Amino acid sequence: MVLSAASLAVSTGVLGMGTAHAAYSECNSSPQRLCLWDGSNGTGAKYEYGGDWSGCVNVVSTWNDRISSAYNRMSIPVTLYQHANCSGGISYFRQGISGNVGGGIGNKVTSIWFGY
Ligand SMILES: [Ca+2]
């Protein structure tokens, strides 16, 4: 599928993080959350999506071009997009995956696709 390259990049980032993992533990799975940070490796300010989301959502203006890392604790995959309305470059986060935003769109994320 077209997203395989992006998911490989995310997995490599997770493997390279070593023990600097503390902030990711601040992201709850019950109820399920998508957690986003403006620093790398789950550091800095955090923004969360909870509840039922599907399809494309543009991030709030205060978080536009600001997301550096993420932890997807939802039961669905999410895809971060470079531009509005889910266009441009992507970074894919399967369920249970944390890591820095890949795909060359760190600090460039403007919209998010929730689901498959
Ligand atoms: Ca952007």
From TrEMBL:
The lineage of its organism: Bacteria, Bacillati, Actinomycetota, Actinomycetes, Streptosporangiales. It comes from Sphaerisporangium rufum. Keywords: Signal. This is Peptidase inhibitor family I36. Residues 1-22 form the signal peptide. Transmembrane segments: none annotated. InterPro entries: G_crystallin-like. SUPFAM superfamilies: gamma-Crystallin-like. It comes from the Bacteria. It holds the Pfam family Inhibitor_I36.
